[in-house]
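pinging the channel bc i need a second pair of eyes. not urgent but kinda urgent?? the chain im working w is below, pasted from the shared doc
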Amino acid sequence: MYAAYAVRHKGRSHCAAYLYGGTMNNYREEAITLMTEHSIKPSYQRIQVLSYLLCNHTHPTADIIYKALSDNIPAISRATVYNTLRLFASKGIVSTFSTDNIEMRYDILTESHGHFVCTKCKKIYNFPYTYQNKYMGLDEFQIEEEEITLRGTCSSCSS
């Protein structure tokens, strides 16, 4: 599933044009379909927030999304973006994680995967990861969620 998702969602150069009045309708339609499948009423603001996430696999914060959308959607508020993201997370459309224990980041990729955070450029990369449930000393514990975040220097910064 991870590989299929990554292939299906590569090449995002047209996203800004779509979000701000372009002619591409595939992300809008995909956003509406995802919301409908998860019993969420697709309002204009929700469609725009989800379309942004479908277009941008940059692991944005709510504030980044708000700033990206607010210039062209004056009616959107920070509270709307936060509430929409909270709703999407509760319905399993997006996953959440924090790289610094301060700001929550949002990821449209909900399949099992890990994150690599470059300590130099701060870019966040996804990588396939399969939950193992093999931890010494936790035999009688019930693990409900696992979040893998690796930190280091990415190949671009290493050069």
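so The beta strands are 95-97, 105-107, 113-118, 124-128, 149-152. and The first helix runs from residue 2 to 8. — does that match what u expected or am i reading it wrong
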